[in-house]
Amino acid sequence: MDWKEQYKEKIVSFEEAANKVQSGDHVMFSQAHGEARTLLKALIARTDLKDVVLMAHLHWGHSLYARPDMDRNFIMYSNFLSGPVREEYAKGKVEFLPLYFFDTAAYYETIHRPDVALLTLSEPDEEGYCSFGLSAEYSVALANGAKKIIAHINPSYPFTYGEKIHLDRLDWIVYQDEEVFEAPTVAVQPKEEDVAIGKLIAGEVVDGATLQMGIGAIPDAMLTYLKEKKHLGIHTEMLSDGAMELMKLGVVDNSRKKIDVGKSVANFIAGSKELFAFSDRNPDLLVRGVGYTNDPYVIAQNDNVVSINACIQVDLWGQVVSDYMNDMPYSGVGGQVDFVRGAKLSKGGKSIIATRATAKKGQISTIVSRFPHGTPVTVNRYDVHYICTEYGIVNLHGLTVRERIKALIGIAAPQFREQLEREAYEYGMLRG
Ligand code: COA
C-alpha cells in the first residue's frame, strides 16, 4: 500500500498542523527522543494563542517553550524538570506536576485526556502501523486518550517492537525526514566515585538477575562491571548505550526471565546514534508503554530484579530525596518509586539507591541527619531497601532505627561521620 496516497487528506505541513491547536487546549507531547521538536517550534511561533497548556515529562529538545518571552500564551506543565525548564520553573513560568511515572498511563488515558497529543512516530509497516520508536513512555496512553493526535512521521526514527498505533487513529500527519539527535547524557563521563559505586552494585547482581537502570552517571558506570555475569535480563524504564553493550556481548540474554523471555523490555531509549541503529527492528527488544513497564506487579513477576537508581540525599531514618535540591524541584520522581516497589516485591529482588557520599567538591555530605526544612521525600523509609555510596552498600530493610543509623553513618564520607552521630543524638533519633 502507498500509505501517503491513501492518507493524503491527513498529511499537512508543520505550520498547518500547529494551526489545529486552539486557545485553552491542553497539548501533551512525547518526551526525550520522542519530542516532536519541529512541530513544537511551529506551535510556539503562533502569537494568536492564549493559555495553551503544554505538558511533557523529560525534556531534552530545544525547550523553546520555556523561553522567557513565551509569557502566558503558553503555560508549561512538567513532572520532570531538566536544564532550561528548571530555570524557567525558578522564575515561576513552569508548573510542576508530581506524578509517579506509572500513574501517568491512567492519568492521560482517562483522568486528564489532553485535547491534542504531539507524537513522533516511525514510518508505518505494510499494515499501516507506526511504532513509537525510541519513546513509548506515556505516548501509548496518549494514543488511547488524547482527543486529537498530530504525528510527525519521521523516516529516520527507528522502528521498534512492543507497541504500535495505526494511521487511522491519527488526525493529522506531518511527514518529514529529520535527524534524531543524540541524548545529552551520551557525553556524561562517570567520576571516580561513580566507578567505585558501580563496582559495589555489580557485586549485588547475581547471574540470571533482571535489571532496571535509572537516570544518571552511576547506573551507567555500574554496567561496565557486569561483563562477567551470565544470563542477565533487562526490564527497565530507560535503556542506554551501556545496556546495549551488554546485549551485544550476550551477557544479557533474558533467558531466566519469567515474563518476556528472550526480550529486553524498555519504556524509552536514550543514547547515541549507534543505539538508535541497534534498536531499529531489533527482535530482542520491546519498547512498551509506562502502564506496562512501570507497573510494580509486572516488574515483580521476574525473579531477582535489581533496580538501580540515583538520589541526591539520604537522611538517617533512611528516607531518600531524589528530585529536590536547594529549595526547588531538581528533576522528578520518574519511575524510581515504581521500580523500588517492583524490585522489592520480586523474589530475590533488590532495590538499590546510590549517591556519591559528598557533593559540592566534598564540602557537604549527601547522607544527612535530617533534610532541610520543607524538603519533600521521594522514597519513604518503609519502601527503602539498599543504599550505596563509594564507601559501601547497606540493606536497611528490617533494621531498627539504631541499626539503620549505624549502617548509614558507616557509608558516609569519613570526615562527616562524627558530626552525623552527634546530630542523631541531638535530634533524638538516637537515645540512651
Ligand atoms: N547537595 C547539593 N548539590 C548536590 C547534591 C546535594 N546533596 N547532590 C548532587 N548535587 C549536585 C551535584 O554535585 C551536581 O552538580 P554539578 O552539576 O555542579 O556537578 C548536580 O547536583 C547533579 O548531580 P548528579 O549526581 O551528577 O546528577 P545525575 O545527573 O547523576 O542525576 C539524580 C541524579 C538523582 C538527580 C537523577 O538520577 C534523578 O533525577 N533521579 C530521579 C528520577 C529517577 O531516578 N528516575 C529513574 C527511573 S528512569
What are the salient characteristics of this protein?
single chain, 432 residues, alpha/beta, Glutaconate Coenzyme A-transferase, seven-stranded parallel β-sheet, six-stranded mixed β-sheet, 26 strands, 21% strand, binds coenzyme A
Compact description:
By secondary structure, the protein is of the alpha/beta class.
Task: Describe what this molecule looks like in 3D.
- The chain is of the alpha/beta class.
- The chain folds into 2 domains: 3-175, 3-Layer(aba) Sandwich (Glutaconate Coenzyme A-transferase); 187-426, Glutaconate Coenzyme A-transferase, CATH 3.40.1080.20.
- The protein has 15 helices and 26 strands.
- Helix 5 packs parallel to helix 6 (139-145), helix 7 packs across helix 8 and helix 14 packs antiparallel against helix 15.
- The chain is globular and about 75 Å long.
- The structure holds coenzyme A.
- Residues 214-217, 237-238, 309-313, 322-323, 325, 330-331, 333-336, 359-360, 364, 366 line the site of coenzyme A.
**What is the average per-residue confidence, as pLDDT, rounded to a whole number?**
94
Small molecules held by this entry: coenzyme A
* DSSP strand count: 26
State the helix count: 15
Strand ordering within the main sheet:
4-3-2-1-5-7-9
| Number of domain units | 2
Largest sheet descriptor: 7 strands, parallel
